[in-house]
Design a protein that fits this description.
The protein is mainly alpha-helical. The protein has one domain (4-173). The chain is built from 8 helices and 2 strands. The protein has helices at 4-20, 32-39, 44-49, 64-69, 79-95, 105-116, 127-143, 148-157; strands at residues 164-165, 168-169.
Length: 178
């Protein structure tokens, strides 16, 4: 069971992600099925046709099963698609962080990798959204030893600027539970 302060931090980060991305819509961005079609080198016609398989109007409508089925397409989402899907994936990662033996560990890796190794994506987000991503990384840095180094590196290279308060990363003020 999570300790109380860790659980409070977790819930606060999930709430911050939900709030920051509340009004995000996909618009004409690439869907998960389209990203898979791009990965599979399908034709433009096929890519347009598979869009009907992704009827979600809001990222909160995505099921865990669908997120897990498309754990390998992040690199093939266009910027609008990435902004639309990343909050659902970050929340999935946070909810399943303690499940180190689950069948969908690849989803965790790809979601985190899409943030930590693609710093240019920070330019796609509002300050509030960037702060939510920063808080997600702070949670990983504080509470998941397997992601600590990568999360801290991403914070230092790019994402930490969204959480700066008084010249220091706000994680200096977060509870640290080991």
């Amino acid at each position: 069971m999570l300790e109380a302060s860790k659980q409070q931090f977790l819930l606060a980060v999930i709430a911050e992600i939900s709030s920051a991305f509340a009004d995000v819509s996909l618009g004409d961005g690439a869907t998960l099925h389209q990203a898979r079609a791009i990965d599979d080198s399908e034709s433009q016609e096929h890519r347009r046709a598979v869009r009907v398989n992704d009827s979600e109007r809001h990222w909160r409508e995505l099921s865990d099963d669908k997120l897990c089925h498309f754990d390998d397409v992040f690199n093939f989402l266009d910027p609008k698609g990435w902004v639309f899907y990343i909050p659902a994936y970050m929340i999935w990662v946070l909810r399943h962080l303690d499940d180190k033996t689950g069948p969908h560990r690849g989803l965790e890796s790809m979601a985190i990798y899409s943030i930590t190794c693609r710093n240019e994506r920070s330019k796609l987000l509002s300050n509030e959204q960037g702060r939510a991503v920063c808080r997600f990384l702070l949670f990983l840095a504080c509470h998941d030893p397997s992601w600590r180094e990568e999360a801290e590196d991403a914070l230092n290279r790019c994402w930490g600027r969204f959480c700066l308060e008084g010249g220091k990363h706000s994680r200096d003020n977060e509870p640290r539970i080991t």
